[in-house]
Amino acid sequence: MSLRPNATSSCPSASLLRVLQGLLLLSLLLTTLVPWTAGETQSADKKRFVELYCMCLKTVSGIHPSNIQNLEVLSAGPHCPNVQVIATLKNGKKVCLDPEAPQIKKIVQKILESNESTA
């Protein structure tokens, strides 16, 4: 055994082992760096897990339909036991609506009927 830095090993499997260790280290490094360098932000991670919990913790029972730009109805499922109605207002703000409120039921029904007639 030699202490020289350029000494060659008499065992070819030892050098193969070093190469494999180096490749493993390089692959681990690349798998951790690629998502970071690909521009994945924290908001993309949040969007990925957005359906794993109830989005609507507080609801509003009254809102004028003319203020609603878009309406999204999320059915109950493993992520949330409640039906969720999310309205995007014309000012860009998102509001959770109470799906049991009579006024909200009417708004959802009108939108569903208008979608059926246009489809």
TrEMBL record:
Give the residue spans that cross the bilayer.
none
Q: By its UniProt entry, which PROSITE patterns does this protein fall under? A: SMALL_CYTOKINES_CXC
Please indicate if the UniProt record lists Secreted as a keyword: yes
Q: Which domain of life is it from?
A: Eukaryota
Gene name linked to the record: CXCL6
Q: Where in the cell is it found?
A: Secreted
Concerning its family, UniProt says:
Belongs to the intercrine alpha (chemokine CxC) family.
State the CDD domains in the record. Answer: Chemokine_CXC (cd00273)
Task: Report what the protein is called.
Answer: C-X-C motif chemokine
Chemokine interleukin-8-like domain location, by residue?
51-111
Which interval of the chain is the signal sequence? Answer: 1-39
Choose any GO biological process term that the UniProt entry carries and state it: neutrophil activation
An annotated GO cellular component: extracellular space
Organism, per UniProt?
A: Ursus maritimus (Polar bear)
